[in-house]
Amino acid sequence: MSVIIVFLAVIAGISGWWLSQQRLMSKPWLEQGVIDEHGGSLGPAMPTAKVGLGVFLAVVGCLFALFTSAYFMRMALSDWQPLPMPGLLWFNTLVLVLSSVALQVALMAARRGQLDTVRLGLATGGLTAVAFLVGQLFAWRELAGEGYLLASNPANSFFYLITGLHGLHIVGGLIGLARTSFRAWTGTPARKLALGVELCAMYWHFLLFVWLALFVLFAGWAASFIEICRQLLT
Amino acid sequence: MVDVTPGSVEAIPPAEVPEVELYHPHSWWTTYVFSQDAKVIAIQYSCTAIAIGMVALVLSWLMRLQLGFPGTFDFITPEAYYQFITMHGMIMVIYLLTALFLGGFGNYLIPLMVGARDMVFPYVNMLSYWIYLLAVLVLVASFFAPGGPTGAGWTLYPPQAIMQGTPGGQQAGIILMLVSLILFIIGFTMGGLNYVVTVLQGRTRGMTLMRMPLTVWGIFTATVMALLAFPALFVACVMMLFDRLLGTSFFMPAIVEMGEQLQHAGGSPILFQHLFWFFGHPEVYIVALPAFGIVSDLISTHARKNIFGYRMMVWAIVGIGALSFIVWAHHMYVSGMHPYFGFFFATTTLIIAIPTAIKVYNWVLTLWRGDIHLTIPMLFALAFIVTFVNGGLTGLFLGNVVVDVPLSDTMFVVAHFHMVMGVAPILVIFGAIYHWYPKITGRMLNEALGQFHFWATFLGAYLIFFPMHYLGLMGVPRRYNELGDMGLISDSAHHLNAFISVMAFIVGFAQLVFLFNLIWSIRHGREAGGNPWRATSLEWQTPETPPAHGNFGKELPIVYRWAYDYNVPGASQDFLPQNDPGDYAGAKGH
């Protein structure tokens, strides 16, 4: 359970830092009058939707951290046989990076008010994300074709389950992206799109980060890294 | 010391919210059924939770029938008994307590208490309720599925949970249970995002975090915990569903069932326990923290005195929330873990007693020399303190490995967790309903029926659960549907069991009286007015009672003070509402 504990420690650090900006030492019983706080960086300057997405991403991160924890615990048992990484996954990773970059470009264009580039970025981001999903399906087929079935080994079960869940999150993101794109093609000015595009980009970067972490996990590098840390500590 | 701006009250423009931000319903359906108003959603949540809670109450009666009078009732087979016990636990912990505290009180109170017009994402909030309802319906469906609901115990431990010997294990029961939990978690996450972000972003002008009523602090912290803890249950449920349906071996070891080797091999039931309790222990505080918050407000209001140690209360809530994530394995002392782990988890468990004890001292010190009005909410709040201390003390017993090992799986554990997370939070829920019912409906609940309900519930609950401690110390195991002829169990245990069963029926009956009171008072209760308890927090200062959609009329209130200005020296009345600019010259004198 060490992965989830580390994850929660990070969350606790962020929450603690935020709380420390909130005048927790004040004595409210001595203070009358209007206090205009919001000195902390999460004040109303930050759009509500962005805070909401941030909280949601913490929950999603928690979910994947828990799967990773379970992965490591199950891995320690004797029947674990790591499965080979299809080369296709490298390609998929590249496609997902492209997708993230495209949305970042769209965001920067939206801030500058260039509607055409926004549209281009959104379309590229969406199509590459779909391409990633298709690529993942092909990777599944390839593995299944070589006899690495869902139930034949826990390593396989985890691989299909976690990549499937990651894919589902991308599908959910595509719905949000479709809504933003719809607005981009129905005459909303680019600057008004900035928030929606930013939310999509945030979500995409986050899922890219999760994917990279999962890639490291499935490739077995994470386990060797932890093994090195353990040897350093003991 | 602080950047307060006394004197410049006139210069502050009222914070107006543009009309466009509120969704306006157009028909009866969108006003009362598919409503996006947090108050309507709160009532929907509460009614659903209470309805499914009544099912769990009936299940507990059936269990008590069997335990009190074994062999008398033929229809309660051992399998049926396990199903009752499982569904009773699951419903009470998740579908009643969690849903009612966060979905019910959270939805109703957060926007009103922080001075917001509504939750920040009303549409998602509405979805949250409908998914919750779907989860409840799936759960109810399992009662009618072939083989009935699952009988795996509320902890659903594999491997037994998905095997033939357990009721529902190889039928639909366990599948429906897991699907229902997954739905619940998805629905809760939608609601939880709303509660957290509304507290972060939706507070009105002047409502700093340290001016929020403790109710909001409790619900806020509990929601943050729930958002981080429920994913663990989600992961456990999904993986178990895979084991059950797709033949994977996440949790299932190599095992022989009815003389037949199963397909599974190598899985770890302990892994499930870790995931389950990583959710399960924070869950205790997810239920307890809102109760702590609400009870603080009840005590302060009904003792006409500011809460003692407000800052300490806030810090304790946050501290308990953080600590509760590193104690989960104290539910697993008998799982054969490394002794040093047991030592670690026993230590963290006992450390939680410190912030918790601080809270208890502060409640008592708030009462000290207060002007205590023994209203029904106050009676329930006082009963909560006593009950919580009782349950907490037995928690210290069970938190120590050497004491826990012999007491594990006995009725002592049952008595402990019913006292601390069954009876205690339920008492707060009752107190809170008596307290806020006038705001929700505009009428008071009937006082005489309330007195009966309180005394029957409070005394009855003690008569049910106190003897269980004794049974547990004697060695009576939990989860047995019948004790039979065990040498170690004396006759007195059987008599006590019969006594407990009778008491359970009486307490259950008192809840029916309460339900009657809830329905009867909507029409026939005494008119309450806007602020019957003369309370300070913002929900009592709305222009209309019950509050209209949008809560505060044209202008949002501006907050000038914390929520506990009762009996301020020099003030013209014994309470100053949070939006009362007051008299700064007089206030300077502190």
UniProtKB/TrEMBL annotation, chain A:
Keyword Lipid metabolism recorded: no
Pfam family, one: COX3
Protein's GO biological process: aerobic electron transport chain
Keywords for the protein's UniProt record, in alphabetical order: Membrane, Transmembrane, Transmembrane helix
The Heme-copper oxidase subunit III family profile domain, residue ranges: 1-223
Alphabetized InterPro entries for the sequence: Cyt_c/ubiquinol_Oxase_su3, Cyt_c_oxidase-like_su3, Cyt_c_oxidase_su3-like_sf, Cyt_c_oxidase_su3_a-hlx
Membrane disposition: Multi-pass membrane protein
Principal place of residence: membrane
Intracellular or extracellular location(s): Cell membrane; Membrane
Annotated Gene Ontology cellular component terms: plasma membrane
CDD domains in the cross-refs: Heme_Cu_Oxidase_III_2
Domain of life (superkingdom): Bacteria
Transmembrane intervals: 51-73, 85-108, 120-138, 158-182, 202-226
Record GO terms (molecular function): cytochrome-c oxidase activity
Gene3D superfamilies: Cytochrome c oxidase, subunit III, four-helix bundle (1.20.120.80)
Family that this chain belongs to: Belongs to the cytochrome c oxidase subunit 3 family.
PANTHER family with a match to the protein in the record: CYTOCHROME C OXIDASE, CYTOCHROME C OXIDASE SUBUNIT III
Protein name: Cytochrome c oxidase subunit 3
Organism in which the protein naturally occurs: Neomesorhizobium albiziae
TrEMBL record, chain B:
Name by which UniProt lists this protein: Cytochrome c oxidase subunit 1
Keyword Calcium: no
TM helices/strands, residue ranges: 42-62, 82-110, 130-152, 172-193, 214-242, 284-300, 312-334, 340-364, 376-399, 411-434, 454-476, 496-520
Gene3D superfamilies: Cytochrome c oxidase-like, subunit I domain
Homology family: Belongs to the heme-copper respiratory oxidase family.
Subcellular location: Cell membrane; Membrane
MF terms in GO: cytochrome-c oxidase activity; heme binding; metal ion binding
Source organism per UniProt: Neomesorhizobium albiziae
Pathway: Energy metabolism; oxidative phosphorylation
Highest classification ranks of the organism: Bacteria, Pseudomonadati, Pseudomonadota, Alphaproteobacteria, Hyphomicrobiales
Membrane topology: Multi-pass membrane protein
